[in-house]
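Q: Hi! First time doing this. I have a protein sequence and I read that you can turn it into a structure. Is that right? Here it is:
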Amino acid sequence: MGSFKRKGGPRLALGYEGLARIAEETGHYHDSIAEWNRAGKVWESLQPAHTAELIRNLEYRAFLYEQLRQDRDAAYLREKATVLQQAIRWAAAV
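A: Yes, that's right. Below is the predicted 3D structure, encoded as structure tokens:
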């Protein structure tokens, strides 16, 4: 992860997502969410080229929050994903 942190970019985000999946599979859901959050921050910094990846990240984090019965957090993330999807549609229409 060290070399990815220095360079940043999509590889860093994918690395964080990989760590998140490992944490989730071993039952460490809070650690998994933390890694998904880190990946989300990287995807946000890569806007607008990686908006689809950010939306996927937001939706998966919302899914995990729902599994942990944290419905407010899940609803907030789903709302952010919806806003981004609308922005993509508006940009495509112009």
